[in-house]
Design goal:
Length: 685
């Protein structure tokens, strides 16, 4: 019992922080210092020196030498040399063995690269085989940029924007950095001396020595007394939109030298920047480096995924777009520039121009003053622009000035499509995820007329017929499709479903992905969501004359589309980023088409201009609007001549390693004797 108690006591004592077992192995116990240690088995601990003695000892120590930048300090703030687990969001080579990185905190890091071969010796990466590649931080500048606002990542976490844009100038001695704080700074690369911790000592205890080494260091250019905001070394960029934070830079690039500048060893100071708002800025010295630069936006971009684009009903040079953000854009297609932009007060999902001008009304629109787009003079009527929200609501804006007029709150979920109709009674129809279609009377201040119920899923597309039904109150029929691929017809004023067959109806537009005239646009194996948008060209279709109040039949020109009634063209946008052009009506299985590429994501919307000379597409996640020019779509244009495609030559043989058989098609280059450039293309039957 006594032995067990003593063992427990000894183990308990050894676990205390002050016990001998808890001491570091590098310390020598007093019992091993000599034979005199056994004379006094319980020596008293040494007395603690007084405060006066401590002050005298501290004064007797030599003063510490100032450390070069790189060990514990950098610039004006103290920091550690190690990264400390912080992510690196950008990197650029400034020399063969030097890398500069950017951090989310706004700091910059200068790293020295070491290349070694199999023997561990230093080697040159261009001439030797590198087996080990290591980096070590030489300098950290913590106050290079501010961290900026927080950024939401795809995994649900958040971080700061930091420094994500860096580039070297053509002189090889200066570099530019752009941060999330809206600043662009110029840095000079210079050789300097840093202090690094050397190898640990082997002859006893003590701190490892500090070694001095040569390294490349960064130094911010510009005056410290006067902070520059417009160059030539620092630039402060403000948002082009009012009451918004400065843009966060994501990319930056300098203008390269031309041949004359290389001969004269001149450095171009112009550069461009890309922001998190998808805008492209340019800093240009039009009058030389001695004069202030010209800073402006060269390309305006959408700030979120782009879902909708709308063309003006009478002006072929005007179209509008809205992304999943609270801003709408009005563009000039001829000049390819942004005409106007304004906040809309909701997250946009769909957009549409009114089919006819809306008369000015002091009762329903008291603060509205319509103006002409070209000269800015006051007008008696003007077009409206309706924007459907992702989370409900519909905003009505002026089609020229983007002045907010009315906000409709009947819809409580995403509005996927909006359509105006013309006379004799102007109405607006909204298709939403409420599984209904809401109809509004435009001339009466968007009074809610009806709600069409009957679909089994979210309503995705809708179209108006021409006013050719005199027995109906509105003389029009509304057709709509939903996510369940239902095609239903409605009387818009009463909201009742029309059960009669509408195969002889004439439609003002056709944007439905389902229906008899477009059943040939679907490829084999495609599902019901592959085709996102459809639009039919206006050429060859019947129209409604507002002056006479009659339907005008289309002129079937001789030799155009085989002299078929209502023949024309239809364009589609699909999930594969492709834009396809079909004949209309497209009723054949595997109908022929022409395919056009350009989007890097799902193509979500496509629209013809009012004169059919252009096609506009919205690219979804790539946030881009593409503009295509048509050839041969209009009746007054000469059809383009195309060389006939060569007859396909194919043979039946083994494919996929010889286990599966199918038709083997040869490329045109291989059939024409193009040598080794041709290759066979395998296709399963």
């Amino acid at each position: 019992a006594s032995s067990k108690a003593s063992s427990k006591a000894s183990s308990k004592a050894s676990s205390r922080p002050g016990s001998a077992a808890a001491l570091s192995k590098s310390m020598t116990p007093l019992s091993k210092l000599g034979p005199t240690s056994g004379l006094n088995p319980n020596p008293k601990p040494p007395s603690t020196p007084s405060s006066a003695a401590r002050r005298s000892l501290a004064a007797a120590k030599p003063a510490a030498k100032p450390k070069p930048p790189g060990v514990g300090e950098s610039g004006t703030k103290g920091s550690q040399v190690t990264v400390g687990g912080e992510n690196i969001v950008s990197a650029v080579y400034v020399r063969r063995d030097v890398i500069v990185t950017g951090f989310p905190s706004g700091a910059l890091g200068v790293w020295t690269v070491s290349h070694r071969d199999a023997t561990g010796a230093r080697c040159h990466p261009a001439h030797d085989v590198v087996t080990r590649w290591t980096v070590s931080m030489a300098q950290r500048i913590v106050d290079a940029h501010e961290p900026g606002p927080r950024v939401n990542l795809n995994d649900g976490t958040t971080t700061y924007g930091g420094v994500r844009a860096m580039t070297m100038r053509a002189d090889g001695a200066t570099m530019l950095t752009g941060g999330a704080d809206g600043w662009v700074h110029t840095w000079e690369l210079a050789d300097g001396t840093i202090a690094v911790v050397g190898r640990p000592k082997t002859d006893g205890p003590g701190k490892p020595p500090v070694e001095r080494r040569r390294a490349v260091l960064l130094r911010k250019l510009g005056s410290r007394e006067r902070r520059e905001t417009a160059g030539p070394n620092s630039f402060k960029i403000s948002s082009p939109y009012a009451n918004e934070p400065p843009p966060a830079f994501r990319a930056i690039d300098c203008r390269p030298q031309n041949s004359s500048q290389r001969r004269a060893r001149e450095v171009p100071y112009e550069f461009v920047m890309g922001t998190n708002k998808c805008d492209v800025w340019e800093v240009e010295y039009k009058r030389g480096i001695d004069h202030p630069p010209t800073i402006g936006v060269q390309v305006y971009g959408h700030t979120a995924d782009l879902y909708a684009v709308a063309t003006h009903p009478t002006d072929p040079d005007v179209f509008a777009s809205c992304a999943e953000a609270d801003r709408v854009f009005l563009w000039n297609a001829n000049e390819r520039t942004l005409a106007r932009t304004a906040p809309v007060g909701l997250v946009g999902r769909s957009i549409c121009f009114s089919a006819t001008p809306v008369p000015r009304s002091s009762t329903h629109f008291p603060d509205w003053r319509p103006v002409n787009r070209k000269d800015g003079t006051e007008a008696k009527s003007g077009h409206h622009l309706a924007v459907g929200g992702k989370f409900g609501k519909i905003a009505i804006l002026d089609g020229v000035t983007l002045q907010p007029l009315v906000t409709l709150k009947d819809v409580g979920s995403a509005v996927d499509d909006l359509k105006y109709c013309g006379g004799p009674r102007a109405m607006l129809a909204a298709a939403s995820h409420d599984i209904v279609v809401d109809v509004y009377d435009v001339d009466k201040g968007y009074t809610h007329l009806s709600r069409c119920r009957g679909h089994m899923a979210a309503v995705t597309h809708l179209d108006w017929s021409l006013p050719m039904f005199p027995h109906l109150p509105s003389r029009r029929v509304l057709q709509a499709t939903c996510a369940a691929c239902e095609l239903l017809y409605w009387e818009p004023v009463t909201g009742e479903q029309v059960l009669e067959n509408q195969r002889d109806a004439r439609w003002e537009s056709w944007t439905l992905a389902q229906g008899f005239p477009v059943m040939g646009i679907w490829e084999d194996g495609s599902d019901r969501t592959d085709v996102n948008a459809v639009d039919r060209a206006k050429s060859g279709q019947d129209t409604f004359d507002e002056t006479t109040g009659a339907v005008v039949r289309a002129d079937q020109s001789a030799g155009f589309a085989g002299d078929l009634d209502r023949a024309g063209y239809v364009v589609t946008a699909d999930d594969f980023g492709k834009v396809k052009l079909f004949n209309y009506p497209c009723v054949f299985n595997d109908a022929p088409y022409r395919e056009y590429k350009g989007h890097a994501s799902h193509a979500m919307c496509v629209r013809f201009s009012c004169d059919d000379r252009r096609v506009f597409t919205a690219g979804g996640h790539d946030r881009a609007v593409l503009q295509f020019t048509t050839r041969g779509i209009r009746r007054d244009e000469k059809l383009p001549e195309y060389a006939p495609a060569p007859e396909p030559k194919r043979t039946w043989g083994p494919i996929d390693g010889g286990k599966a058989y199918g038709w083997i098609e040869e490329e045109a280059g291989a059939r024409s004797g193009g040598g080794s450039g041709g290759s066979a293309r395998n296709r399963r039957p």
